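PT: before anyone asks, these are the final sequences, not the draft ones from last week. 600 residues across everything. Please model them as a single complex and drop the result in this thread when it's through.
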Amino acid sequence: MSKLFDAWRKYWFTPAPLLDLAVARITIVGFQLWWIARPPYHGALLARTELSDALYDPLPILHALVAPVGWSYRPGAEVLEVVLILTVAAGALGLIGLFTNAALLVFALGCAFLQSFLYSFGDFHHPEAVLILALGLLALSPSGGALSVDDLRRRFRRAREAGRFLDFDLKRAESAFAGWPLKVTGWVFVLIYASGAYFKLRNAGIDWANGYTLSYRMMEDALRWDIPLGAWLSAHHVLMVGLSWMSLVFEATFALAMLVPITRWVFVPLGASFHLGIYFTMGATFQGYVAAYSVFVPWRAGLERLARRFGRPERRPVVLYDAACPLCVRSVTFLRYWDWLERLKLKPLQEVGQEEDLDPDALRREMHVVFPDGSVERGFFGFRRLLRELPPLWWLRPIFHLPGASSLGPRIYASMARRRRRILCDGEGCAVHDS
Amino acid sequence: MPGFSDRLGRWIVSVVILVVLAVQAIAALALTPGPVEKPPFLWPFLNYPMYSAPHYEGEGIPRFEVVATTSDGREIEVTKENLGTDFWIFRNAFLLPFEQQGMRDELEPGVGLFERRHGVSVVEVRLEDRPLVLTRDGTEDGPSEVRGVARRTSPDGPWEWEVSP
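LR: through. Structure below.
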C-alpha cells in the first residue's frame, strides 16, 4: 500500500517548473478572457434575457451558484452585466498575476456562472468545459508563482528584507504543487478524446470512417454557418476517409501523450491542427482547446534550449547598480526577471575597481551599462539599449523609440532617481549611499 | 520531510485530483444513472458523443426552411436573424419540435418571441426540407418535402401537429 502512495506522490507531487504552470495560466486565462470580453458574448447573454421563462431550464451548477439568492433565481440583464464586468476584471488580474489565486477563483466561478446561464435554454455545447475545469485547477495551484506581479513583488520584498539583490533564475523555480494541475488537465483531455472515440465506435463502428459520415457533418455545418471551405472539402471523398481515420486514431490513442511524453511532439501539433481545422471548415469553436494545450508543452525545457542557443554569451552587457539603494536593487531584480536567456551581468558599483575608469559620483547618480563593445550607456538610454537583450520586453522597444522619447525618457528617469534619494532611500541602505 | 501544511496540501489536492478525474470519467463514458443521465447535469463534466452517428451514400443532408402563416393569411419565413437569436435557440424552438415529440412544448415560446418581434399572430408553422443528397463526388439536390405542419385555430389555441415520419 505504501508503494502505491509513494507512486501517487511521485507522479503528482514531484517538483515541477513554476514557469510551465505560469505559461499555462497566461494562455488559458488569456484565451478565456478574450472569449468572454468579445461583444458577441455580451450580446448572447443579453439575447437570452429576452427569452421567456418557458425556455429557461437552468443547469444544476447554475442552481448551485445562485442558491444563496434562491434556488430557481433567474438572473436579469443587470446582474449578468455586473457579473461579466467582475469576471473580466478578475480575469485581467489573473492574467497579470496580481492576487492570482483569489482572482482566478472569481474568474473560474464567473465564467462557470455566465456559461451555464447561456446553456440553460435547452441547448449546450462542449468547447468551454475543459477551460472552465482548467481555470478551477489553476485557481487551486501556485500558478502565480512565476510570470506574475505577485511573484515579482515577492522577490522585491525578499531583496528588501535581505538588504541586497538576491540573484535568481526564473526558469529554475519549482514547486511540488506545480505539476498536478497540468497533469490533471492533460488527463481530462485524454478522457474527452476517449469519450469521442468510444461513442463513434459504439454508434457506428468503423463505418464512422467511411468518408460519408464526415462529409455529411462537414456539409451540414458548412450550410448552417455558411462556410465555403467546408462545403468544398466535403466533396472530396478520399480526403474525408483519410481525415476520418486520422480523427478516430487521434482520439483513441491520445492517452499516449500522457504516458509517453515524447509523443506530444506528434499529438500536440496534430490536435491543434485538428481543432483549428474543424473551426475553419465546420465553424466548431474549439480554439480554446489549442490554448489549453499549453499544459502539454515543456516551456522551461524550451527556454533552456533557447538560452543555450542564443543566450549566455561570453561577453555580456554589465549593469552597474547601487547595491545600497532599494530602488536600484528593485530595478535589477526587474531586469533579471525578464532575462530568460541569461544575457545580462549584474554588478554592484561597490565592486567596480578604479581600473574601470568610471566616475563614482556618476555611477551613484544613475544606472550605467557597459556593453561588450566597450561603450557605456547611462540611465534611460542604458535601459533602452538593454531591452534588446530581453525578448519578453521587446514589445516596449517601439514605445521607447517614439518621437520625443529621447528627451522625455531621461527626464522621467532623473525624476525617479531624485525621488529615490529622497523617499526610497531613507532606510539603512540609503543612509550609506547618502553619506 | 515535508511539513504539516505541505502534507495537508497534498491530501487536499489528492482528493481534488480523484474527484475531477472520476467525475470526468463517469461523464465521458455516460456511466451516470437515472436523472443524472442527461449529459449537462454534470456540466462542465461532459460526454462527447457529437458527430458519432454514421452516414452513408445516398442520404439527404437537410436544408430546412420554417414558414409562419399569420392570422391574416401572410406567409413569413422564420430565421434566426428575424427571431433575433442564435441558431441554437432557433433550432430548439422551430426545428426540434418537428423531430422530437418531447420538444413540442418549445414551439410556443418560440412563436411567442416571433409574434412579439413582428407584431403578428401566428396560426400555422410549416417546416420544409430541400435536402442535398450525398454522393461519392459531392452532393446533389434532392426532392423537396414538407416535413411537418403545426397549426391552431385561434391565437391562444392548442397546436395540432402533422409530421411526416
